[in-house]
Design brief:
Layout: H1 9-16, E1 21-25, E2 28-32, H2 40-50, H3 60-66, H4 68-79, H5 83-87, H6 91-104, H7 106-131
Antiparallel strand pairs: 1-2
């Protein structure tokens, strides 16, 4: 194994820490950063409300078309943009924001995707059991 010829701490840091994604919209650029731990429960709560959203086969464009009201709420959480502002945006811009948010959070979902899917399944099953008539 050969030693690196040039040290680049900034490049090493970029590989470890999630980087912002800049999305170019018709109205200007928006920077999207990875979710924080505090934002994750809100996002998962919204996805649970959807019922039909499968994280394993998530299709962002189908999500926008099939569940636009919920998609606006999810994009608002992922991008930290006001939902009221998103409602007035062109579909292309909202789709670009959603895809940018997926990209900004990709390292987390790639690294922990299976565990996240299992955890969401357990939470959903537990919620279903607690809501069922007993």
């Amino acid at each position: 194994m050969s030693a690196p010829t040039e040290e680049n701490p900034a490049a090493d840091l970029e590989r470890v820490l999630p980087q912002a994604v800049v999305v170019q919209l018709s109205t200007g650029a928006v920077e999207i950063r990875a979710l924080t731990l505090g934002e994750l429960p809100v996002l998962l709560g919204k996805l649970r409300e959807a019922g039909g959203v499968s994280l394993g086969n998530f299709d962002p464009i189908a999500f926008l078309v099939e569940q636009p009201a919920l998609a606006i709420e999810v994009v608002a959480i992922l991008t930290r943009q006001p939902a009221a502002q998103l409602q007035g945006m062109a579909l292309d811009d909202v789709a670009a924001l959603l895809l940018g948010a997926v990209e900004a959070n990709r390292s987390f979902f790639v690294r922990y995707g299976l565990q996240l899917l299992e955890a969401v399944g357990r939470v959903t099953a537990a919620a279903g059991q607690s809501l069922s008539p007993g």
